[in-house]
Design brief:
Order of helices and strands: HEEHEEHHEHEHEHH
Strand content: 15-25%
CATH topology of the largest domain: Rossmann fold
Low-confidence stretches: none
Mean pLDDT: 90
CATH architecture of the largest domain: 3-Layer(aba) Sandwich
CATH superfamily of the largest domain: P-loop containing nucleotide triphosphate hydrolases
Number of domains: 3
Structural class: alpha/beta
Strand order of the largest sheet: 5-6-7
Oligomer: single chain
Number of strands: 7
CATH class of the largest domain: Alpha Beta
Number of helices: 8
Helix content: 25-40%
């Protein structure tokens, strides 16, 4: 923040969705820990008093195994905003036939940034009141981002809200249901992949086919 140019107009504070800027009577304070790097403050400053600077907040890591490549971001300890790191991971993804992005559940900035620009989005939920509540919010995000969405039900069989009924009422495809089954938990504990279990071949094939269809593959 260049104090010699700043007129304390307050535009930067008004546009900051993350409350990273405070405009005081005689100065402007920037809280770097809250900044998400969106750049809105610098673009809307009429005096060109705000300059963006590089800030090391993590690293992008790549690992390979067979035909698969895994890329992920490792956030530095103490950093509060992961969104810029997610953007960098997405920008670093090499050209390839299929890219699968995984993100935390919910509708936080990390999920929004991960979904943005995707060909399709599979929302994983479970038949609980909390699961249905989060599903409704996540669906609103995909609609605003104009990303086609489908639902995959985990822990199917738990007593709770009827996810299928909700999806049918809102014309949302359900592309798979994974039952609540002790054998699945035991397989996870051994490091096994459920997708390789013959019992669930059809379940995961349906999910794959829907995603590829939405992506035009």
């Amino acid at each position: 923040m260049d104090a010699s140019k700043c007129t304390l107009c307050g535009n930067c504070r008004k546009v900051c969705e993350f409350h990273a800027i405070a405009v005081l009577p005689k100065e402007v304070m920037v809280f770097k820990e809250l900044c998400h790097g969106c750049g809105a403050c610098s673009m809307l400053c009429p005096e060109d008093a705000i300059t963006e600077v590089d800030h090391l907040m993590g690293e992008v890591i790549m690992a390979e195994g067979g035909v698969l490549k895994l890329m992920y971001g490792r956030l530095k300890v103490g950093e509060a905003a992961a969104t810029p790191l997610i953007r960098q991971v997405k920008a670093t993804i090499p050209e390839g036939p299929i890219t699968i992005m995984d993100c935390p559940p919910g509708t936080a900035c990390t999920a929004v940034e991960s979904i943005k620009g995707a060909d399709a989005c599979v929302l994983v939920t479970e038949p609980t009141p909390f699961g249905l509540h989060d599903l409704k919010l996540a669906l609103e995000v995909t609609r605003k981002l104009k990303v086609p969405a489908a639902v995959f039900v985990n822990k199917h069989g738990l007593p709770g809200p009827d996810i299928q009924q909700f999806c049918d009422a809102h014309k949302i495809p359900v592309v798979g249901k994974l039952p609540i089954d002790r054998s699945i938990a035991e397989a996870y504990s051994r490091g096994a992949l459920i997708a390789e279990d013959a019992r669930f071949n059809t379940t995961f094939k349906k999910l794959r086919d829907w995603a590829l269809s939405e992506a035009g593959r």
